[in-house]
Amino acid sequence: MKIAQVAPLWERVPPPTYGGIELVVSHLADELVRRGHDVTLFASGDSQTLAKLEAVCPRALRLDPNFREYSVYETLELSQVYQRAAEFDIIHSHVGVTALALANFVPTPTVHTLHGSFNNENKNVYSHHHKQSFISISNAQRQVDLNYVDTVYNGIDPGSYQFFAKPQEPAYLAFLGRFSPEKGPHHAIAIAKKTGWRLKMAGKVDVVDAEFFEREIAPHIDGKQIEFLGEIDNVQKAELLGNAAIALFPITWREPFGLVMIEAMAAGTPVIAMSMGAVPEVIAHGETGFVCQSYEEMAEMIPRALELNRRQCRQHVENNFSVAQMVNGYEQVYQKMIQQRISQNGHLHAAKITF
Length: 355
Description:
Elements: E1 2-6, H1 20-34, E2 38-42, E3 52-54, H2 70-83, E4 90-93, H3 100-103, E5 110-114, H4 122-128, E6 133-136, E7 148-151, E8 173-176, H5 185-195, E9 199-202, H6 210-217, E10 226-228, H7 234-243, E11 246-249, H8 259-266, E12 271-274, H9 279-282, E13 289-292, H10 295-300, H11 302-305, H12 310-320, H13 323-354
Parallel strand pairs: 1-2, 1-4, 2-3, 4-5, 5-6, 6-7, 8-9, 8-11, 9-10, 11-12, 12-13
């Protein structure tokens, strides 16, 4: 198959530090190439991929001091994609609402993976284009009535994550993610303080979250019980999660997937999380972690989580959230949509002849 993968331009593919969408796109594009498909990746120019790379900006926009308006570059990217639509059997968009309008004007089918959540603004756009083809990354994500062709869970390469048979001593809890209210880092701190556990935290602080960080996080960082590591690379991330006794996922919103959970479990670390969004679909409750109804319950589950089998945590990821399984799911969607187009074209041709 000739496949176009369309990635956001904010981070490179794969991301050097934080960037869940870009990591998924990287795994997907590279594995499709390994399986013999002709893949073109539309992404930032500093991306590293086995696919053919097409870029409208030399590097990830987040790192470009000269960048002013994201929509300009995204418009250029999508213009390039859809001007070349005839070259592809299918276009796979990972950029959200901006591809919806253009997808209607070319015969090449587009499938949209929904990487984010719905809000009052974007759900109106999605509803307007509800007949297009969408892939949800969890069943919990399906909050708007759309033409969902499948649910394909995100996948990682477990082999790239070292397995940690036991946590580091002295033991600690880990939090990894953006320092924003919806990710709940302030709840992670509260849990650590309530239970007396050490907490190591890592992740980026976006400009929009700077005030939240200074108000709710910074005053608690003492370098002893509460340690802030900043934005760390993939090697440091694997070590942070793998050496932890438990990973906390204290979200406050309907997270559509939560890649950190499977990264932690791949390293052998059980996860305690709030029962929101896709959490019950990702964690095997009582086996690889605990799905909780309150932050108080999260704190209470720590002793029980310490008794869980770390090898079983990794096996859960290998069985359910590997790159191979993710790409199998996407391949089936591509084949289904291409066959539908061929069938529709055949019916149209037959109808013209009959007429």
